[in-house]
Every structure is written in structure tokens, then in C-alpha cells.
Amino acid sequence: MSRTVVGIDFGTLSGRAVVVSVADGKILASAEHTYPHGVIDRELAGQPLPPDWALQVPADYVEVLGKVVPEALETSGIEAADVVGVAVDFTSCTVFPTDEAYQPLCERPEFEKHPHAYVKLWKHHASQRQGKVVNKVLAELAPETPATAARSRRTGSWQKPLHCSRKTGRSGTRPVTSSRRETG
């Protein structure tokens, strides 16, 4: 039995999988699939989007997962039973609004035309104004905290969950985020 791990990367325009040998770190195979909907930054449901929007369709991630992992395993010749670990990565500050059952909000009929119900990418900067407000308040109320250091300023990316919950008007919905700490 050859022990392997599978890495899955959900990037900006596509998703990738890589099969790696645990014994020596050798890449045995990889596969990539472009998102069918790409980055939605001009219009949604026939309506123009304001500047600085960058949305994605979560069903694209599911499609990628169903294609790249089987393809990479087949190309490598490795059996699924030999996979001992899976690692998953998303672009930083990707915000994924869901309902209480973790169904993507954009897949619910009442939200399918609502831009705040879609996945917000790292390059979605429509809430930059809220980030500036947070920075100002932190600087005034807690100037000694690390959060006010120039390297740790809160950008609009960090304000997306608040912005989404305010715009959807649903107290029962909560954004689920996968993000890394931003520096610089």
C-alpha cells in the first residue's frame, strides 16, 4: 500500500487537486477544472453589479470537487483506500453565506437574485467603507491594541460577514468564513 494525501485548492478561477506520496513528498498527479461561472463581477441575474464586487457560485466548488479528485487519483494510479489525508484550501477571506442548515443562501429561491447571498471572494471590496470605519473606531477607542498597527488594519474583506447579515435582513442566517489573517 502506497500512503498518499490529496490536496484540494479552490482558487479564484479554478479548483485543483494534487495527489502526493506521504513517504517522499513526490507529486504523483494533479488535475484542474475551471469554474463554470467564473468570477461574477459585472452582473447578476441580468442586473449590473456596483464596482468592486467579486462573487462566485458555490455549486462550482462542488462540481470541481467531483471532477478533480477522481481525475487526479485515476491519473496517479492510486486507489482511494490509499489516501490517508485530505487538505482543503480556499482563497483568503472567502465569505460563504449559508442558512441554519448550511445551505448556500444563493441556492434558496428567495435569495437567488440577491448579490449578498453569493460567495464573496478575496477581491470583493464593496465593503471597504465599513473597514475604514472599523479602523477609525479602533484607533480612537483602543490605540494601544495590535489591531490598530499599520500591518493589521481591517480591510473591507473582514467586514463582509457583518455587511452580508445586515443586507440579507435575516437574523437566522450567518456567514461561514474561511479566512487567513491579513497582513499589510
Question: Quick summary of this structure?
Answer:
The chain is built from three helices and ten strands, in the order ββββββαβββααβ. By secondary structure, it is α+β, with helices and mostly antiparallel strands.
Characterise this structure.
The chain is α+β, with helices and mostly antiparallel strands and 184 residues long. The chain contains three helices and ten strands. Strands 3-2-1-7 form a four-stranded mixed sheet. The chain has a two-stranded antiparallel ribbon with strand order 4-5. α2 crosses α3. The protein is globular, with a radius of gyration of 19 Å. It starts with a strand and ends in a 6-residue tail after the last strand. The C terminus is likely disordered.
Number of helices: 3
Instruction: Report the C-alpha radius of gyration, rounded.
Output: 19 Å
Helix and strand succession?
EEEEEEHEEEHHE
What fraction strand? 25-35%
Give the integer mean of the pLDDT values: 81
Largest sheet, strands/sense/barrel: 4 strands, mixed
Low-confidence stretches: 162-166, 171-184
The assigned structural class equals alpha+beta
Give the strand line-up of the largest sheet: 3-2-1-7
Gap between N and C termini: 45 Å
Helix content: 25-40%
What is the overall silhouette? globular
- Would you count the extended β strands for me? 10
Key features of this structure:
184 residues, alpha+beta, two-stranded antiparallel ribbon
Secondary structure elements and their pairing?
Blueprint: E1 4-10, E2 14-21, E3 27-34, E4 43-44, E5 47-48, E6 55-56, H1 58-76, E7 83-90, E8 94-98, E9 119-120, H2 128-141, H3 156-168, E10 174-178
Parallel strand pairs: 1-7
Antiparallel strand pairs: 1-2, 2-3, 4-5, 6-9, 8-10
Helix pairs in contact: 2-3
